[in-house]
Amino acid sequence: MGNVVSIIVTGAGAPGIAGTIYSLRNNPDNIEIKIVSTDMNEDSVGKYLSDEFYVVPPPEDDTYINIMKRIAKETHAKVILPQTTREIIVLSRYKENFKAIGISIVVSEHDKLLIANDKFLLLEKAKEIGIPYPEYYLVTSQNSFIEAIERLGYPQKKVVVKPRVSNGMRGLRIITPEKWNIKKFLTKKPEGIEIDLNSFLEIFNKNNWPELIVTEYLPGEEYTVDVFKDGANVIIIPRLRKSIRSGITFEAQVEFREDLIDFSKKLSEALDLNYCFGFQFKLSKEGIPKILESNPRVQGSMVVSTFAGFNMIYYAVRKALGFGIDLNNVKLHEVNFKRYWGGIAIKDEKYVGRI
Fold first, then answer.
1. Which segments of 239-340 does DSSP mark as H helices, in order?
2. CATH number of the domain to which 265 belongs
3. Which of 48, 50, 153, 194 would disulfide-bridge 351, Cβ 3.0–4.6 Å?
4. Which helix (H) or strand (E) holds 123?
């Protein structure tokens, strides 16, 4: 593979950047990897954790692709590892273009991503192949929205609303009829997810609605599943999200639930995804895991799988480089992962330490 392998990691300001870099540097082949990170923010934290850093425009900008090619040429990079949803959509469109100049992109095919990134199409696929899913409706107007929430049992039950395409918790709201009382005010942290119906309706112009998905509210625990897929070879590592803050996992427990492994395998095959990616499930009141969404890229806490015995971030890069992958001797184990409020110190634009 060579003495030093240069890799471009996009999204240097993404929440999972430290875990991604950790996984690449602590790879099982003991390969020295030069990390070249990029971001729109010129002072992203990943800048100080990487060997080199470049500022890039938004992926939708006409100059983005040529700038990425220039960075790859200057740094002798052979692989691009995108971490953001916006970038995977654009970069996947140019996979063959990059391949022609000797650069592989760790991303599935463009047409597959358009389905996996679309929460409505994902739920349609789940319905088609028999994967449990929450009751859902696609709405495009206030009238269709009101009709959908009533079908889902509102106001007796909470309902969930979110855009068809989004990442993190952007656009996610739980519409609830519950009123705040003194106890709730004093004990509940303001998460910004719950909203009452009138406040939600005030956000939108009555005649100008985006496409939204309205689903039943699932009260149970939430799971993220990390998946590595190389043709027919698949490694699947589910983890319980024991603590979540602002959409980021702060405590996770790896649990090898057979139902989650089976559902994720079927979804990954039906969606025809490759490299490393993930799914999110939530339990119904009956304890059944129902699919919420897919993340067809490196997930924010995918480093947990590295600690669980399989460094799928690195193996995705190895696959992109065209090297063989032997999964016969993989030994997985259940681990608990706790995130904490760390930080780095910077002096004169240089990294000097971290906690």
1. 258-271, 303-307, 312-320
2. 3.30.470.20
3. 48
4. helix 119-129
